[in-house]
Design goal:
The chain has 234 residues and is an all-alpha fold.
Length: 234
C-alpha cells in the first residue's frame, strides 16, 4: 500500500530501478579512480556526494512505495559512509537534518550515529535543530538557541517549549509545522512532467515526536508525517 499517493506504484518502481543503476555507475567510477591523484580525489568526493543523493532518494522512494521499514535501515547506515567521504556543512544542512532524524527513528548504533555527530563537530555547526537531535543521543551536548534557517525550522523550538507543560498543544504545533515544512520546499516534485517524485516526508517531525514522547496517533494519516517510520519497532 502506497504511503505517498502523489506517484504511482509503477512510477516509484521506475525511480528505484533507475536509482539503483545510478548507484552502481557511481561505485564503478569510484573503483576506477586513484586516490593518490589530486584530480581523482576531487572526482571521488563528487561521486560520494552523488551517492548521498541517490541513497537518500532510494530510501525515501522505498518508504513511499510502502516497503517494510526495518529493511530500509541498511540503506541509511550505508549512506553514512558517503557522508564521511564528502559531506560539507555549506551545502548539506538539510541532508544532515534528515540523517540525524532517520538515525533516531531507526535507533542506529551509537558508533554510526557518532560518525554523523563528528561531522557536525568538525564543521563547528551551531544550530538549535541539529543540537536538539544530537542531544537525544548524547545528553551532554550543549543546545544552541539560534537556527541557521528560521524557515521552516524556527517553529520546532515552540514545539519543544510547549511539550514541557502541554503535550497536546505541542502536537497541535507539530501539525502546523508540517504545513510550514511543505510550504518551504523549494521544488514540488509531484508537479513535474518528469517522473521524479520520491515522496514528501518530514523526518524531523517524526524524530521530534519520538524524542518528546508525543501521542502522535492523530497524525497517522497526516500528510508528510512518517508515522510508520516512528512506530516500526513498537
Amino acid at each position: 500500500m502506497l504511503r505517498d499517493t502523489l506517484n504511482t506504484q509503477e512510477g516509484y518502481k521506475e525511480i528505484i530501478e533507475e536509482t539503483l543503476e545510478f548507484i552502481d555507475f557511481d561505485y564503478d567510477d569510484l573503483n576506477s579512480y586513484n586516490d593518490s591523484n589530486s584530480e581523482d580525489r576531487k572526482k571521488i568526493e563528487a561521486t560520494y556526494k552523488s551517492l548521498i543523493k541517490y541513497n537518500y532518494e532510494l530510501l525515501e522512494t522505498y518508504y513511499s512505495l510502502g516497503e517494510e521499514v526495518q529493511g530500509l535501515k541498511e540503506v541509511l547506515v550505508k549512506n553514512i559512509i558517503n557522508f564521511k567521504n564528502s559531506w560539507q556543512a555549506e551545502w548539506g544542512y538539510v541532508q544532515m537534518v534528515n540523517m540525524l532524524s532517520l538515525g533516531i527513528l531507526f535507533e542506529i548504533e551509537n558508533k554510526d550515529f557518532d560518525e554523523l555527530i563528528g561531522l557536525v563537530e568538525r564543521d563547528n555547526i551551531n544550530d538549535y535543530l541539529l543540537d536538539f537531535l544530537i542531544g537525544y543521543r548524547r545528553s551532554d551536548w550543549q543546545l544552541t538557541q539560534k537556527f541557521l534557517w528560521n524557515k521552516p525550522y524556527k517553529g520546532i523550538s515552540e514545539i519543544v517549549e510547549l511539550a514541557r507543560d502541554d503535550k497536546e498543544k505541542a502536537l497541535e504545533r507539530l501539525k502546523k509545522y508540517l504545513k510550514e515544512w511543505y510550504r518551504g520546499l523549494e521544488t514540488k516534485t509531484h508537479e513535474s512532467k518528469h517522473n521524479i517524485h520520491t515522496g514528501y516526508w518530514c523526518w524531523e517531525a517524526g524524530a521530534i515526536a519520538k524524542i518528546l514522547d508525543l501521542d502522535d496517533s492523530g497524525l497517522k494519516d497526516q500528510p508528510y508525517y512518517p508515522y510508520d517510520m516512528v512506530h516500526w519497532n513498537d
